[in-house]
Amino acid sequence: SQELEQSPQSLIVQEGKNLTINCTSSKTLYGLYWYKQKYGEGLIFLMMLQKGGEEKSHEKITAKLDEKKQQSSLHITASQPSHAGIYLCGFLNSGGYQKVTFGTGTKLQVIP
Amino acid sequence: AAGVIQSPRHLIKEKRETATLKCYPIPRHDTVYWYQQGPGQDPQFLISFYEKMQSDKGSIPDRFSAQQFSDYHSELNMSSLELGDSALYFCASSLGTSGPTGELFFGEGSRLTVL
After folding, report:
1. Are A92 and A30 within 8 A, CB to CB?
2. Coil vs helix vs strand at B89
3. Testing the interface with B: which of A98, A101, A102, A104 to mutate, by most B Cβ within 10 A?
4. Please, which residues bridge with residue B90 across strands?
5. How far apart are CA B9 and CA B22, in angstroms?
């Protein structure tokens, strides 16, 4: 979706390294989802951010929402092979039923 | 905890055939969404239902139809299948509210292959 741009498109890191994935929206964000997907498998919910400046963490993954800049970043600390997969950000449309539009995804590989 | 259940997980059909995918939302969730993900692409929203009524419509072809039943499960019916319909079809559920709150949980997906 061109409404949501993710960068980088792919990333290869050494195990133990930190990394950041960015998600930029061309529209006002009412909410921002982060999902992880293994190839050909379901989307695993990571976290949802709703307020500007909000920051959430789950294990070694931290996500922030900059509402003014219409951006979100996902940061992984001390990456592990289990972090490998495709990370998708999705924004919440302004409608009342939580339809999520997804970004293009970032493919992460972690080399042991 | 119970998750979103989709069936079948894999389906192989010939061109011009019909396929039906089923989705069973998380208990008490009243909103269901269908997404289509082509190879190497991001999930594209097809259609959603809230309390058995269509609530939103995305890029769903006219050959496709869907509905939500009284027990909140949903079915996506696809007719006159084309090669380009080969994709991973996701169902997601949430507790519908009047505002953008709540989490959206996805099923494992149904992989449709059209030969």
Report:
1. yes
2. strand
3. A98
4. B35
5. 10
Tens digits of residue pLDDT in B40-72: 788 888 998 988 898 888 889 999 999 999 999
Q: A21-25, A67-71, B21-25, B57-61: lowest mean pLDDT where?
A: A67-71
Total number of domains in chain B: 1
Q: Which of B44, B86, B104 to mutate to test the interface with A (most CBs of A within 10 A)?
A: B104
Cα dist from B100 to A27, A59, A106, whole Å: 15, 25, 25
Which residue from B88, B102, B106 is facing A98, i.e. has the nearest CB? B102
| CATH number of B55's domain | 2.60.40.10
Question: Are A33 and B106 a contacting pair at CB < 8 A?
Answer: no
Region class of A78: left (phi > 0), else alpha (psi between -120 and 50), else beta? left
